[in-house]
Amino acid sequence: MAAGEFDIIRSLFAPLAAEKGAFALDDDAALLPAAEYVATKDMMIAGVHFRPDDPLDLVARKLLRVNLSDLAAKGARPVGYFLACAWPKTATRAQIARFAQGLAADQAQFRIALYGGDTTKHRAAGAPLTLSLTAFGAPARMGMIARKGAQIGDDIYVTGTIGDAGLGLAALEKRETFAKPARDYLVGRYRLPEPRLVMGGALAGHASAAIDVSDGLIADAGHIAAVGGVGIEIEAERLPLSPAAKDWLERQPAREEALARLAGFGDDYEILFAAPPNRRRSIDMAGKVSKTAVARIGQVVKGAGARLIGADGDEIPVESPGFDHFAG
Amino acid sequence: MAAGEFDIIRSLFAPLAAEKGAFALDDDAALLPAAEYVATKDMMIAGVHFRPDDPLDLVARKLLRVNLSDLAAKGARPVGYFLACAWPKTATRAQIARFAQGLAADQAQFRIALYGGDTTKHRAAGAPLTLSLTAFGAPARMGMIARKGAQIGDDIYVTGTIGDAGLGLAALEKRETFAKPARDYLVGRYRLPEPRLVMGGALAGHASAAIDVSDGLIADAGHIAAVGGVGIEIEAERLPLSPAAKDWLERQPAREEALARLAGFGDDYEILFAAPPNRRRSIDMAGKVSKTAVARIGQVVKGAGARLIGADGDEIPVESPGFDHFAG
Prior knowledge:
The structure is a homodimer.
Chain A: H1 5-13, E1 30-45, H2 56-73, E2 77-87, H3 93-110, E3 113-121, E4 130-138, E5 155-159, H4 164-172, H5 180-191, H6 197-203, E6 209-212, H7 217-228, E7 231-235, H8 243-251, H9 255-264, E8 271-275, H10 280-289, E9 294-301, E10 305-309, E11 315-316
Helix pairs in contact in A: 2-3, 2-6, 4-5
């Protein structure tokens, strides 16, 4: 491979750089315009957070979107990002170019720009593509929606549909089979999440606490519960499901177990949030204005932890409560 | 290993978090106080940027310092950082704790705090510790010192001494041998660079362009030359050398070749900068006030690229002009 690091930065990444402040990636640092910022950093590793054979333009877009999803759940409007890539020893210029194309597509869609970063290469054979992205944005005028703040008596809501990404991953890993259009939809939900940015902005000032669903619905509800010192109950029959997920659910022998699996899957990148009951109309309005489906699925209660509740009022055990990279 | 991801974050990293804005690392995002920021991101990979057997507290401190050094060269005062770690499959809690101890030590020294990040683990056997840090700081009142801006006729300066880190690495890799005190000094310079923060702040308003020496003196001078559309000449006999490096130089059969090696080594993390001749007194003063040695080593000239010039006025070829991760 003849392409050098500086050529790769100049030809593939410099075109993605912010017009002001990023210095065409010719500097070691960027100058961010004076403002208050919300910032977040998420890492993705081949073989851990995505499949090594996932198309690299989609990997790039997912990396951006999981970070934008964090900003969305905080009610913030994204502005830009810093990117660090450690490529495998065997990476080719064409692969890096495809990755940069994915970034370019999503930059245009979300009106953000690259501010700086670092591009390097592993020396160890077999060391996987390792990506780290720091995204920053402007908080809503009403302020940042924190993870902490859910009050007893609040409603619990979630945007979009739940469980699709987990089913998409199961399809890719051949643990589940789906007919063609459903399969494409579910795999698409796994590979290319939709950060709920407009909805997040509309929730600022209404939501008492919020998080994006990355570890799994019940696991992430558990995070809100833990930092808020409250309990959360989610009604299994109220989970918003896509047609493809409903179809799958109908085919399962044990309905409650299947609902628990959907509530355990991660990677949906929907916004899970709490809001006082007197905000129900505002929440509906926020959903309509942002053209985002939103479902009221539970309540904040006394106690601790998050529980999935069946139609009979009993708790349904949910396995894999979040993805713990250090467990076991 | 029983320690889970959340426990590791809570017990090892949360104590490092900023009092305000980092939400005790309980949130996906941080809120940065309203200001103008200079930001930088550098990645470090075991086996590429540090030796796999380097003590992990020193690895952590070097990771912080290479980023602080970028801020120093921009004249910025560091405020905080985001950190992403992908640990090898086999990492133990004790190793991560030692890493966190290193961060704590340097946070205290440089008065900065952790604002957020991501802690995860590789699944692939042999995948190395991969670290990415995004540091941000406040620009000096006189503004950020850019890499671009060197003018023909400017003087070229460098802080501290040059070549020590490269000799330290050579000692660790048993390519060179040194007597005990010199060896410790040189290895220390490789493992624990000193970001020239006070000097950097004092240079704002005086330096026309600056960079920190990470790729190598000549390579980094080449970066300043390239973005400035100028040439840079550095006089080999003016390179500031430590007693240990002088000693080594005396022992080399070919003096010019040896000087070229020192000018080719990376990892010194000194500030290399340009300033107009009418600022000589201000530069001297900045060095005195910040207790930082500073040497005038060359000139900005017409042309392109950076050259090392011998006592006879001829160019001395410098090998390994910077570390290109994607070369060859």
